[in-house]
Amino acid sequence: MKYMALVDCNSFYCSCEKIFRPDLRNKPVIVLSNNDGAAIAFTKEAKAVGFGQMCEAYFKLKDKVKQHNVAVFSSNYAFYDDISKRVMNVLRAFSPNVEVYSVDEAFVEIEVDDISQLEPIGRRMRSEIMRQVGMPVGVGISKTKVLCKVANKLSKKHNGVKVLVTEKDIDDALREFPTRDIWGIGSRSASKLHLINIKTALEMKNFKDDKLIQKVLTKVGREIQDELRGIHCLNMENVEDKKNTGNSRSFGYDVRTKRELREALAQFATNSAAKLRSQNSVCYGLSAYIHTNPFKPGPQYFGEDHVRFSSATSDVIKIIAGAHEVLENIYRTGYGYKKGGVLLSHIVPANQAQVDLFCEDPTDNNEVNKVIDMINKKYGPQTIKSAACGIGQPWKTIHDYKSHHYTTDWNDLMKVEL
DNA sequence: TCTGGGGTCCTAGGACCC
DNA sequence: TCTGGGGTCCTAGGACCC
């Protein structure tokens, strides 16, 4: 019989930071967003002393951080990605069918003859990931993805592994489970369910009027209902290529000049294009935006627009030009801009792209891009890039508390003193 | 002073076709 | 009074996730 496990890393970013810092064991740790603007990850020790509200502004937390002697880190995404890959590789030893759902969690298909084998498998996943990577995880095992999510949530109270497969166990779990905590039910949907008197997952599972659920929550909600009943709607998916990709950042200060915005958007375009090429895809569309700081009083402006490429491309030069074309349309003088971004859309595999018969310049600078990618792979990201991105990039974000790139940079390897 | 970034899927409604 | 019917494709916006 086939089941699936949802393996989820505990406070992933914080746990990454702790791997090479044994002195932080059992200590409160928080990780900040880009720009050190907001707190985005917390260990359970940090939650215990009152932290834990996602995206709370860091400047509001500083006093509390001092008071409780909390270790604070800027986010170090290259490092987290590397640890994530290591965790996923451990899981691949358990099953050929692993769906990496996000940086810190994966669904793993498992086949057993008897359900009594499920819990030991979950235990082994946990211990192997801890042994090989040093990452604590929780494992939830059940029949469908939505039920796995429920099981995973409960795993914290069961030493990290919870199996939910018999009807009775499932109903017992769902009876206590608020609708808002169901995977895919956000606050809006939960309020709507409340209006028809559905407050727990069990009530949703047993609600007879499927058509009403469909009407209130669309197809999405209907499928969640079936998943609660153990009926598969959300299948294991192969990690396919991204359908959209992009890059955006808040700036270190309010940016006022078009020259600086051109640099920033060129950099975002460069990063997006590199992601596109790394999955061997090309795109037909690009959109870009800039906006003022919504937290500041005063007039606000959100500018956004898009362009279509006459033939699909992953050429960094064309993509930067596209972003600049959008900027010309959306830039307004007199505002201080706090954030900008570039998104690539209508992405297709490079070998499936249609060539436009009347396109003036269908050839990309493929060789140039290849060389750029090669150099940046060998010597590190950003070793070579378009001068349009600027040199100093003063608008860039701030990272005051960045940890070392322990596993992704030779210069940051851990030092051992003898 | 300081408030994240990167995604997915669904639906309604407009544009267009014959 | 009364103004086709049936279909496809695309996009903006909403909702959700980590």
Per-chain topology:
Layout: E1 2-9, H1 12-19, E2 29-32, E3 38-42, H2 44-48, E4 56-57, H3 62-67, E5 71-74, H4 77-92, E6 98-102, E7 105-111, H5 118-132, E8 137-142, H6 145-155, E9 161-163, H7 167-175, H8 187-195, H9 201-206, H10 210-228, E10 245-255, H11 258-278, E11 281-292, E12 302-313, H12 316-330, E13 337-349, H13 366-379
Parallel strand pairs: 2-5, 8-9
Antiparallel strand pairs: 1-7, 1-8, 2-3, 3-4, 6-7, 10-13, 11-12, 11-13
The structure holds a DNA duplex (18 and 18 nucleotides).
Question: How would you characterize this protein structure?
Answer:
With 418 residues, the protein is of the alpha+beta class. The chain folds into 3 domains: 1-165, Alpha-Beta Plaits (2-Layer Sandwich); 166-237, DNA polymerase, domain 1 (Orthogonal Bundle); 244-389, DNA polymerase, Y-family, little finger domain (Dna Ligase, domain 1), CATH 3.30.1490. 37% of the residues lie in helices and 22% in strands. The protein is built from 13 helices and 13 strands. The protein binds a DNA duplex (18 and 18 nucleotides) through residues 12, 32-38, 40, 54-60, 62, 75, 77, 101-105, 183-189, 218-220, 242-250, 253, 293-295, 338-339, 341, 343, 398.
Distance between the termini: 53 Å
- Provide the succession of SSEs: EHEEHEHEHEEHEHEHHHHEHEEHEH
CATH class identity of the largest domain: Alpha Beta
Task: Give the overall shape, derived from the CA principal axes.
Answer: globular
Strand content: 15-25%
User: With helices defined by DSSP (H or I, 4 residues minimum), what is the helix count?
Assistant: 13
CATH homologous superfamily label of the largest domain: Reverse transcriptase/Diguanylate cyclase domain
Q: How much helical structure, as a percent, in the residues?
A: 25-40%
CATH architecture of the largest domain: 2-Layer Sandwich
Biggest β-sheet description: 5 strands, mixed
Low-confidence stretches: none
For the largest sheet, list the strands in their spatial order: 6-7-1-8-9
Mean pLDDT across residues: 93
Rounded Rg? 24 Å
**What is the structural class?**
alpha+beta
At the fold tier of CATH, the topology name of the largest domain is Alpha-Beta Plaits
Please, how many domains? 3
Q: Could you tell me the number of beta strands?
A: 13
